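Entry 14. Ran structure prediction on the chain below.
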Amino acid sequence: MPPVTSTAPNTAAILRRVRQIEIRTQRMVTDAMVGAYHSVFKGQGMDFDEVREYTPGDDVRRIDWNVTAKMDRPFVKKFREERELTLMLLVDGSASGTFGSASVSKRELAAEIASVLAFSATRNNDKVGLGLFTDRMEKFVHPQKGRQHILRVIRDILCFTPAHRGTDLVQAVNYTNRLLRRRAIVVLISDFLHGPGSALPDPTAPRSVELFRALALTNRHHDLICVSLSDPRERELPAVGLLSIEDAESGQVVEINTNSSTVRQKYAAENRRRQDLFRRGLLQTGAGVLPLSTDQSYILPLRRFFEQRSRRR
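Output, structure tokens:
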């Protein structure tokens, strides 16, 4: 993986960046987007709303016999969908997220995706929480409502300075499973790089299998979406001669002769193989999978993802 380019932006720069993300993502959160969010994510059930007088065609099973006896004419119970949900954003804050060869880093892309989802949730009066993790859960923001809370969530993602460089997705997912008592929407935003080297870990390795089991458990109790982030330089190498590549998380450095077309082709082929296998493993957990790249717009893929899930439901 290319070396980490770490900067420490000052508070004013971070606030400007938060505001820019808010303006950009608010444009995204149109009525169509909010409608798609609402249709995809349903509430916990039905809440009693009120009683009204019976009209022909009403379900007789909804007759409120107590009110009917008092009023001496039939009344039925009226229900409404229990709409309030919790959106839990799990964002990978490990060192590999700071890399980006395009206009944004994976961390910045994660912040924008989180922002779109959070503002959509807010428009539906849902709560939003945040978990920032590396090889442990480093920051947990309990779900709340409101614009100021969403801005805090975005700021926390952008300002996050991890105490650790590695990634432990299994630990983060299990932590969330223990903490969330009620059904929620869990969005895991990560590059899923939790091993040495720039390629995805072997999907058949014990740690990957353990991750898939943890994700399957999460999806059983919650509505799980895995947003998989990548960068073009992680998928293919440029022909720039002898290249020293440092793994952002382990610090391991290897030298690669990128002038060799054979080396570049093997590198790209291995990445494609692991990406395909890893995506299949994620899909087998039952979770929704949304792949995004730092060099491409996320707007259309996100809308299509919601539309496809809405049609399936």
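The CA atoms of residues 230 and 293 lie 5 Å apart. Will compare against last week's run tomorrow.
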